[in-house]
DNA sequence: TTGTATGCGTTATCAT
DNA sequence: ATGATAACGCATACAA
């Protein structure tokens, strides 16, 4: 691995001049610049990231923190899709992406400690349990942070439009004549709160008043708990005609519960998912669901994070809302 | 952020002693060690990764290189699942994981250059187009490499047991009385070659001889090309009774083609997928498929890579084969 | 326009 | 058992 020292020797100049030439400083003659650059290329020079980081305190590293309740990790398609998009945009802007975790090599280490250890220039946080004090610690630290789908004070956030997106679902369902609509929501998070708010608000618009027993709590990305909730709903004296699920993947549990009872979707019971993962479109009947724009969420998160890093003075906390799209399927019956 | 300097001052010893105490050298008194360690803890000290990397030439960073033909990235569940498992095991061993790419910030950069730039201690390669000369360049470099599902000379490899796993599929299908078995395989890779070999070999065991027109080429993770191939197969004068797909996700294309023709699975045509992603088990009828053990593939890749890094002398190129499991579904009819 | 010198935080060598 | 010091590769303040 060539260093600026070797380039300096090859060019007959000092390392300082090489450094300046390579970093586009004005006080170097044009010919020296081209000589240095050419030599660097032929020598296959690449700067040593560690040395540069030590000196400048910038690593060009972005951390990605994502922990979901179920510990699904990247198997959670919402996250994998979000992170993929974040990664693509980050690389486009010259940043590398690394995962932030607790416990590195047995060493218990807070998220913040891990970020400092790796000198992440910034971190994107996308997880369910934003109540974790370690997350708050990171948000309150000196490290620029962008969160996805959770609002912290003084922290830029990219929000999926949960209130209105849920409204789109309810509008769709009510448009098909449903009035007995149940909602199995995920764990108590701000996302769930917003979806619930959108749910009740839009129901109200249609004069629909869901009884308390129609509101069930389950976990995101957990078919089992949705299976349980579905069974409870279907066992009601006056069961709903339509069930909204926490997400497409959880719906699988609901699907199994419905099947087990010998009921048909949508003839006997209508259902709606959330996320719009490929699975939802492969199911027959095709699942009616709401496609979150994870591509855009990830892209914007990267852009805003880099902005916060490179232009700290002119950057202020923003809330950016990204709407999703209703994907009408075949799982909501016309009543 | 505390440094060893501050610890040294607080303890009234030199930085050298602190460093030794922290890194478990023998030539420090037990009491000094405990004093230093205790002080480090109370000061919230964490080593500066960049400084350490600069000095030791070890970063405790592992690179992950994965590029698939379709550019699906982490949306490809085989990869996301593999990488998740790799990441978990890597972290357990004290390594961080970062993505390797070409083109960082517009700078064209070979994979090898990216790895050197970031001083990756090792790299795991899991991609489809192993023919890329840049991949070969990386494999031939000084950086320890472990590949997944592709065999290079002089490089440890974790292989999914493609030959025998495909054998399991064929055995299952033949056991149900099928003799007209078509195979839509993915792009020309060593994985495809092995599956094809396993396919023909096991067919032969059962006295089945698939005619050339039953062997179709498509792309992995691409429903469209499998859709085309399925149509071609079903249009044959003497169509197959069973079609094997490149993977579960591609099968969606085949499913649509079958539906469009008004055919029923498995009454009119039997099908088998590959991978065993959650989607396959959510389909009705449940897709018969082969579950690759991505968890184990990723875990072993991490273990073997770290071994190659920490014990270069005693490490030699290995080929480790990880078998998958047939997941019998409901998409293969008894003839 | 170019070069000299210093320091980032750590580890390692060699004295003491 | 402990400490002074150099070095890793780079960027930069300052001198020339």
Keywords:
12 strands, DNA-binding, homodimer, 43% helix, alpha/beta, 335 residues, six-stranded parallel β-sheet, 13 helices
Question: What's the topology here?
Answer:
2 copies of one chain form a homodimer.
Chain A: H1 4-11, H2 15-22, H3 30-42, H4 49-56, E1 61-65, H5 77-92, E2 96-99, H6 111-117, E3 122-125, H7 133-139, E4 145-148, E5 156-160, H8 162-175, E6 181-185, H9 190-205, E7 215-217, H10 223-234, E8 242-244, H11 248-260, E9 270-272, H12 278-282, E10 289-291, H13 294-310, E11 319-322, E12 325-327
Parallel strand pairs in A: 1-2, 1-3, 3-4, 4-5, 5-11, 6-7, 6-8, 8-9
Antiparallel strand pairs in A: 10-12
Helix pairs in contact in A: 1-2, 1-3, 2-3, 5-13, 8-9, 10-11
Chain A binds a DNA duplex (16 and 16 nucleotides) through residues 3-5, 13-17, 19-20, 23, 27-29, 32, 47-48, 50-57.
What would you say this structure looks like, in words?
The structure is a homodimer of 335-residue chains. Chain A is an alpha/beta fold and 335 residues long. Helix content of chain A is 43%, strand content 14%. Chain A is built from 13 helices and twelve strands. Chain A has helices spanning 4-11, 15-22, 30-42, 49-56, 77-92, 111-117, 133-139, 162-175, 190-205, 223-234, 248-260, 278-282, 294-310; strands at 61-65, 96-99, 122-125, 145-148, 156-160, 181-185, 215-217, 242-244, 270-272, 289-291, 319-322, 325-327. In chain A, strands 2-1-3-4-5-11 form a six-stranded parallel sheet, sandwiched between helices. In chain A, strand 3, helix 7 and strand 4 form a beta-alpha-beta unit. In chain A, helix 2 packs across helix 3 (30-42). Chain A is elongated. The model of chain A has no long low-confidence stretch (mean pLDDT 94). Chains A and B meet through helix 4, helix 5, strand 2, helix 6 and helix 11 of A and helix 4, helix 5, strand 2, helix 6 and helix 11 of B. The first copy, chain A, binds a DNA duplex (16 and 16 nucleotides) through residues 3-5, 13-17, 19-20, 23, 27-29, 32, 47-48, 50-57.
């Amino acid at each position: 691995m060539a260093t600026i020292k070797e380039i300096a020797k090859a060019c007959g100049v000092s390392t300082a001049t090489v450094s300046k030439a390579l970093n586009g400083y004005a006080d170097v003659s044009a010919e020296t610049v081209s000589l240095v650059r050419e030599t660097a290329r032929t020598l296959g020079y690449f700067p040593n990231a560690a040395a540069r980081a030590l000196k400048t305190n910038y690593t060009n590293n972005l951390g990605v923190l994502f922990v979901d309740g179920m510990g699904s990790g990247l198997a959670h398609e919402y996250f994998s899709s979000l992170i993929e998009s974040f990664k693509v945009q980050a690389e486009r802007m010259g940043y590398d992406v690394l995962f932030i975790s607790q416990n590195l090599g047995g060493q218990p280490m807070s998220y913040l400690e891990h970020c400092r250890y790796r000198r992440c220039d910034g971190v994107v946080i996308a997880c369910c349990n934003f109540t974790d004090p370690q997350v708050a610690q990171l948000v309150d630290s000196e490290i620029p942070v962008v969160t996805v789908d959770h609002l912290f004070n003084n922290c830029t956030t990219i929000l999926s439009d949960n209130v209105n997106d849920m409204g789109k679902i309810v509008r769709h369902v009510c448009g098909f004549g449903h009035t007995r609509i149940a909602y199995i929501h995920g764990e108590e998070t701000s996302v769930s709160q917003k979806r619930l708010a959108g749910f009740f608000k839009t129901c109200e618009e249609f004069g629909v008043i869901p009884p308390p027993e129609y509101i069930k709590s389950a976990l995101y990305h957990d078919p089992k708990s949705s299976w349980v909730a579905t069974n409870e709903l279907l066992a009601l004296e006056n069961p709903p005609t339509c069930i909204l699920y926490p997400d497409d993947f959880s719906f699988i549990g609901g699907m199994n519960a419905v099947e087990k009872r010998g009921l048909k979707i949508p003839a006997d019971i209508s259902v709606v998912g959330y996320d719009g993962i490929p699975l939802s479109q492969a199911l027959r009947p095709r699942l009616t669901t709401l496609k979150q724009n994870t591509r855009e969420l990830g892209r914007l998160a990267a852009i805003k994070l880099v902005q916060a890093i490179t232009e700290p003075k002119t950057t202020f906390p923003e809330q950016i809302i990204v709407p999703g799209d209703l994907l009408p399927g075949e799982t909501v019956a016309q009543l």
